[in-house]
């Protein structure tokens, strides 16, 4: 359908739309008034990763279209654990660990969203504020009657685990009820009428909508974004080395920048639409570049995303390091580094210690493959001992894309 509201038009043209519970009604509502929408994030780590960035962008688009975003920190729901997409029970965390994770995550939202006292200023709220105050009998009596076991068993998050004969604890089974209750509280206390999330959250979102309708006869809406996959079919957010974290202390800015610079040619346009604010006509120009020129578009993508997530200085520094490393043959100061002792260090230990390989066994294999270089020279000896000199670090390379420094 053709949308009339700035919100749904923006989400559609940027590639964020997958499912909407009532497109016509939401479109009309978003056109005539400022609406409040939220996305929930369970603080299961001290940093979010780029898989979460797609959901943060939903809130950013909401604010750009003149509406109010709410970030829900799942301090309460994280005590239970979302079974969606999981084959095993999550590890339970202490209140102290959850508080530390929330503190680590907040900075990412503060860089991307505008938090102020205006009508569209973002809010950050912890659902533990109300979930931990609920009495068990109260929850069963007031909310439990609106959920049937029959229907709960049909949701993918439950059905998949049962089909695979993986254990699903009663604790996790309650997650969807708690998330639905979040929507009820937010609708009552903040006049929140929209929940957004990834496509795997569709069932949880629908539960919240139905709970609002049954208890308060309130009409609220849901929007999900498509699962973001790369052109090779892999789920976005992972690399061969693990998650691409948003926080600097979890992943250096250079490595973050380099992930986007290494984007597949076929994904450049899609990622520019999803993760940058560049005008659509400029994105069309960039994605049409061919041959070596497409690398210019990838550099733009890397700069834009890094500047948004890490800051402009981090983007400039990472680009300068890449330019010096790849074009100039040098070794930029932002490269990851490994400090060897005065007596040197075994190359196997350096490769694993700097994070290029997961184990000494993998490092030995890479050396045997001729993939390891020091200052441009291929090293084939697995017992090689590296001896950097003070003031003269050595450049370590694994393949064409991984580079680091070995210092004293």
Automatic annotation (TrEMBL):
The keyword Nucleus does not apply. Its EC number is 6.1.1.1. One of its GO terms (biological process) is tyrosyl-tRNA aminoacylation. It is found in: Cytoplasm. InterPro entries: aa-tRNA-synth_Ic, Rossmann-like_a/b/a_fold, S4_RNA-bd_sf, SYY-like_C, Tyr-tRNA-ligase, Tyr-tRNA-ligase_bac-type, Tyr-tRNA-ligase_bac_1. SUPFAM superfamilies: Alpha-L RNA-binding motif, Nucleotidylyl transferase. It comes from the Bacteria. Residues 333-402 form the Tyrosine--tRNA ligase SYY-like C-terminal domain. A motif ('KMSKS' region) lies at residues 235-239. CDD domains: S4 (cd00165), TyrRS_core (cd00805). Catalyzes the attachment of tyrosine to tRNA(Tyr) in a two-step reaction: tyrosine is first activated by ATP to form Tyr-AMP and then transferred to the acceptor end of tRNA(Tyr). Homodimer. This is Tyrosine--tRNA ligase. It comes from Erythrobacter longus.
């Amino acid at each position: 359908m053709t949308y009339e509201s700035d919100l749904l038009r923006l989400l559609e043209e940027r590639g964020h739309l997958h499912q909407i519970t009532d497109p016509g009604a939401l479109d009309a509502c978003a056109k005539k008034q400022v609406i409040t929408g939220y996305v929930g994030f369970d603080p299961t780590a001290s940093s979010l990763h780029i898989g979460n960035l797609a959901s943060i962008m939903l809130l950013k688009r909401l604010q750009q279209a003149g509406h109010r975003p709410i970030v829900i920190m799942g301090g309460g729901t994280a005590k239970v654990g979302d079974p969606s997409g999981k084959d095993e029970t999550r590890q339970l965390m202490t209140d102290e660990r959850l508080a530390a994770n929330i503190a680590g995550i907040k900075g990412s939202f503060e860089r991307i969203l505008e938090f102020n006292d205006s009508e569209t200023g973002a809010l950050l709220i912890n659902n533990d504020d109300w979930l931990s105050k609920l009495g068990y009998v109260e929850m069963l009596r007031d909310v439990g009657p609106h959920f049937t076991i029959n229907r709960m068993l049909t949701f993918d998050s439950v059905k998949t685990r049962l089909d695979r004969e993986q254990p699903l604890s009663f604790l996790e089974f309650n997650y969807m009820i708690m998330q639905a209750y979040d929507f009820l509280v937010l609708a009552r206390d903040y006049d929140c009428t929209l929940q957004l999330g990834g496509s795997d959250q569709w069932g949880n979102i629908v539960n919240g909508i139905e709970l609002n309708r049954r208890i308060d006869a309130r009409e609220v809406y849901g929007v999900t974004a498509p699962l973001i996959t790369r052109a090779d079919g892999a789920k976005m957010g992972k690399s061969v080395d693990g998650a691409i974290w948003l926080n600097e202390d979890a992943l250096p800015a250079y490595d973050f920048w380099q992930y986007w610079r290494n984007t597949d040619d076929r994904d450049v346009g899609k990622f520019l639409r999803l993760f940058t604010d560049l005008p659509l006509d400029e994105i069309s120009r960039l994605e049409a570049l061919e041959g070596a020129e497409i690398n210019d578009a990838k550099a733009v993508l890397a700069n834009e995303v890094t500047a948004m997530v890490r800051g402009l200085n981090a983007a400039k520094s990472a680009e300068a390091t890449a330019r010096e490393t790849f074009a100039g043959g040098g070794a930029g100061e932002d490269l990851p580094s490994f400090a060897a002792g005065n007596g040197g260090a075994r190359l196997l230990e350096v490769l694993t210690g700097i994070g290029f390989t997961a184990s000494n066994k993998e490092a030995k294999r890479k050396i045997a493959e001729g993939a390891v270089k020091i200052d441009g020279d291929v090293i084939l000896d697995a017992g090689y001992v590296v001896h950097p000199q003070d003031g003269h670090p050595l450049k370590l390379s694994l393949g064409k894309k991984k580079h680091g420094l070995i210092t004293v």
